[in-house]
Write a structure and sequence with these properties.
The complex is a heterodimer of chains A (380) and B (126). Chain A has 380 residues and is α+β, with helices and mostly antiparallel strands. Chain A is 19% helix and 32% strand. Chain A is built from eight helices and 19 strands. In chain A, α2 crosses α7. The radius of gyration of chain A is 21 Å and the shape is globular. Chain B is an alpha+beta fold. Chain B contains four helices and nine strands. In chain B, strands 1-2-3-9-8-5 form a six-stranded antiparallel sheet. Chain B has a three-stranded antiparallel sheet with strand order 4-6-7. Classes of the chains: A alpha+beta (380), B alpha+beta (126). Chains A and B meet through α2 and α7 of A and β4 and β6 of B.
């Protein structure tokens, strides 16, 4: 079992540990998932996400080569800007979702932990001219929540300048870091990459701030689900296209029919056809009645019992206070407000299709300065 | 006098009168499950064999079930849990009880572990 550079800290904090993508990771701390989740929505939480894959694509042909695997306009991505993307498969399915940042001619990518071996192999097999360098020497932590900027500004005032989905080099309390304003909780926040040996000090410095509590992978999952964010391997995989998964916005205009360089990525024929005509199923949010959580694999039905879809993620949402679910549904029933039925332990649970997310995103473009209302601009 | 007995599946059964027993999950079990957000209870009159699934327990992360460690017929349920499932986290062996069974075979209680034996059992798990 692999260990994150912060493993000893998790043990010290009394975390319940569990295996995730080959790593022994904190699932929750003694305050447990619901408290960690609510703390993230109201204050700021520190997540260890060192298990995720980090790599650089280096060389003057990086953009062209990456664009042959990804339907996003990377050539127009300006310096230090980031984009949420996916690797597509020949059948139009999704091989992984990832975040790519532009470092000039080079690119920095963050990949799902469970897909990192696959992704690196995929990159090395298909990218011939550029070098693919994995950063196993780096730790990765996320500071998420409405107080994240206030905390980080206290440690590093320059962080004010960072816009949502941009990154930069900073020294936090003397520790050199790559900081991006991003995350996967629906809240404002940052992801911080640094050398493994410096991670412990920085994590402890952050936890010493009064607003910051540690949060585990359990809260990370419940937060992303409320924010309507898909989890690879659960909400999307090689059998679901970006259009079906509702992340067609990752396919840039220039890569679509009528764009400057349409297609040229795996599965382009399938994906571009779906963009034109729509997919036969769509990814939606659902609000089940009652109190019972509706889990992955639950059938979505009509009242007469006909199956029209399948739940891919669901739980009792801590901030919503009731069950929520996401999944794929036949497009005829995908409109918000449609009444459907979920087959739970042999019983039909009524549910309503809703537009994602369940909890509004609160991404921020700039740091809110007290008594200055021009500071915070909502994105998305 | 009451005597609480424990199963290797982390359930407990407590009998006051030797004829009926209250059942629930142990502190170890609630700690493993994390925040419990939903409980589905059996109905009064339902009969179960030892090891049968009696109730559904769902935490934020996972679904589990309460398997009765003793056979019997449900004579009372703790319906407060339907509105306040977190009681199972807060007080697993007192307020967080699930149901009371009229025992089919009270001697089954003797096959379960004592508190000392159960403590020994859980201390060897991690």
């Amino acid at each position: 079992m692999l260990r994150s550079p912060l493993h000893d800290l998790h043990i010290e904090l009394g975390a319940k540990m569990g295996p995730f993508a080959g790593f022994d990771m904190p699932l929750w701390y003694p305050s447990k998932i619901v408290a960690e989740h609510k703390h993230t929505r109201s204050q700021a939480s520190l997540f260890d996400i060192s298990h995720m894959g980090q790599a650089s694509i280096v060389g003057e042909d990086s953009a062209t080569e990456l664009e042959s695997l990804i339907p996003t306009d990377l050539k127009s991505l300006s310096l230090h800007r980031m984009h949420y993307c996916c690797f597509t498969a020949e059948n139009g399915g999704i091989l992984d979702d990832l975040v790519i940042a532009c470092l000039g001619q080079d690119y920095f990518v963050v990949m799902n932990a469970a897909r990192k071996e696959h992704d690196l192999n995929h990159l090395r097999t298909n990218i011939k001219k550029s070098a693919v360098l994995e950063h196993t020497e780096n730790a990765l932590i996320a500071l998420q929540g409405p107080k994240a900027t206030e905390v980080l500004r206290r440690l590093t005032p320059e962080i004010c300048d960072l816009q949502f989905m941009t990154m930069g080099d900073f020294a936090i309390r003397g520790v050199p870091c790559i900081v991006s304003r991003s995350g996967y909780t629906g809240e404002d926040g940052f992801e911080i990459s640094m050398a493994a040996e410096t991670a412990m000090k920085l994590a402890k410095d952050l936890l010493n701030e009064p607003e910051v509590m540690p949060a585990g992978l359990g809260a990370r999952d419940s937060l992303r689900l409320e924010a309507g964010l898909r989890l690879y391997g659960q909400d999307m995989d090689t059998t679901t296209t970006p259009v079906e998964a509702g992340i067609q916005w990752t396919i840039s205009k220039s890569r679509r029919n009528g764009g400057a360089r349409p297609g040229g990525f795996p599965g382009a024929d399938v994906i571009l056809e779906q963009l034109t005509n729509g997919a036969s199923r769509r990814f939606v949010g659902m609000l089940p009645q009652g109190r019972a959580p509706v889990r992955t694999g639950t059938d979505i039905c009509l009242e007469d019992g006909e199956t029209i879809g399948r739940v891919t993620s669901g739980l009792v949402a801590p901030s919503v206070g009731s069950p929520i679910a996401m999944g794929y549904i036949d497009r005829d029933y995908a409109s918000p407000g449609t009444q459907i039925s979920l087959l739970l332990r042999g019983k039909h649970v009524p549910a309503e299709v809703i537009r994602l997310p369940f909890v509004k995103h609160r991404y921020q473009n700039t740091v809110k300065i007290q008594s200055n209302s021009n500071g915070g601009k909502s994105n998305v | 006098m009451s005597d609480t007995r424990y199963s290797s599946d982390h359930e407990w059964a407590r009998s006051e009168d030797g004829k009926s027993a209250t059942i629930g999950i142990t502190d170890y079990a609630q700690e493993q499950l994390g925040d419990i957000v939903f409980v589905e209870l059996p109905e009064e009159g339902d009969s179960f064999d030892a090891g049968d699934e009696v109730a559904v327990i769902e935490s934020v992360k996972a679904a589990a079930e309460l398997k009765t460690p003793v056979a019997g017929t449900v004579i009372e349920i703790n319906s407060d849990l339907e509105d306040s499932p977190e009681t199972v986290n807060e007080s697993p062996t007192e307020d967080g009880w699930f149901c009371r069974l009229e025992l089919s075979d009270p001697s089954e209680l003797d096959d379960l572990m004592s508190e000392e034996e159960y403590e020994e059992f859980t201390s060897n798990l991690e």
